[in-house]
Specification:
The chain is built from seven helices and eight strands; from the N terminus they run βαβααβαβββααβαβ. The chain is of the alpha/beta class.
Length: about 220
């Protein structure tokens, strides 16, 4: 964790195309935060290997001896007060690259510990985690089919709560493939403003799930 009192936000991006809307949103968020406040981790450009290897398995069970690339990611998170996951929604979940990053980085001995007497002991209470999913479908489809609930159960309850991180803002960019560039930019503006405001807010005020404005409903 950072030793000074300046906020540090790690923005993690999982998309292979640097010209994608996902990267555009991450860059907009970085620009919306104060200079020096944000670090953007482009997992694809940096070549992060999402495969959970035998070395990862040994480290998981032993609670140490993690591979160097995992240690590097953990050190970046140790310097951060806030984490923002920016990703396209693939099959109502995160891309494999981001899932592998979570699998390998948020491991036993660093993100949590397990005790036979006390159970799971979360270790990331210092961190606030925000979600910025880029969704192709509109908000109505997510509501009708429970897609948003399923995604947030995976990430908010299954990851954020499990490791003891504070729940930050969740801001979907729906209708990401709509033909109107102006309408898409309006949803991006809303999402970026929501997350940037939550990063700056005290932890007790940061939690929210903000629906983005949309140009069309089913």
């Amino acid at each position: 964790m950072s030793t000074d009192h300046s906020p540090r936000t790690l923005v993690v991006v999982a998309h292979p195309d640097p010209g994608s809307l996902t990267h555009h949103v991450a860059e907009r968020l970085g620009a919306a935060l104060r200079p020096g406040e944000a670090e953007i981790a482009d997992l694809h450009r940096e070549g992060f290997d999402p495969r959970f290897t035998p070395a990862d398995r040994r480290a998981y069970h032993e609670g140490g001896g993690h591979p160097p690339d995992v240690i590097r990611e953990q050190q970046r998170l140790d310097r951060a007060t806030d984490l923002v996951l920016v990703f396209p929604v693939y099959w109502w979940s995160v891309p494999a690259l981001l899932k592998g990053w979570i699998d390998r980085v948020f491991v036993n001995g660093w993100a949590f510990e397990y005790s036979a007497t006390a159970g799971v002991l979360p270790k990331l209470q210092r961190l606030t985690t925000h979600l910025l999913p880029i969704a192709g479908a509109d908000a109505g489809a997510y509501e009708r089919h429970g897609y948003e609930t399923a995604l947030l159960t995976q990430l908010t309850h299954g990851l954020v709560d499990y490791v003891g991180s504070h729940r930050g803002a969740t801001a979907f960019v729906h209708d990401s493939e709509q033909p109107s560039a102006e309408a898409t930019e309006a949803t991006v503006d809303h999402a970026v403003h929501t997350v940037a405001a939550a990063v700056r807010a005290p932890v007790s005020q940061a939690c929210s799930t903000a629906p983005a404005p949309h140009a069309r409903r089913p």
